[in-house]
Amino acid sequence: MLKASGNYTDRLAFRNPDGHIVLLIANQQAHEYPVTLQVGDWQTTITLSPSTIRTIVIGG
């Protein structure tokens, strides 16, 4: 399960057949947006630039 801080809802996670977890997160705001993401024991905090989509690939 993918968790994100606050009321952040612009996110998607899936597992590739090779075992990698792929996260897609979007910031539709006109300003930077910090967000903490958690998948299982893995956690990170990033700052999304305005009007962007970020892809993160975890493990394998």
Please provide a written account of the structure:
The radius of gyration is 11 Å and the shape is globular. The chain is mainly beta. The chain contains no helices and six strands.
Give me the number of helical elements.
0
Residues in helices, as a percent range = under 10%
Overall, the morphology is globular
Radius of gyration: 11 Å
Strands side by side in the biggest sheet: 1-4-5
How far apart, in Å, are the first and last alpha carbons?
16 Å
Structural class estimated from helices and strands: mainly beta
Please report which band the strand proportion falls in: under 5%, 5-15%, 15-25%, 25-35%, 35-45% or over 45%.
over 45%
Main beta sheet: 3 strands, antiparallel
Mean pLDDT: 87
Report the count of strand segments.
6
Spans of at least 5 consecutive residues with low confidence: none
Give, in order, the helices and strands: EEEEEE
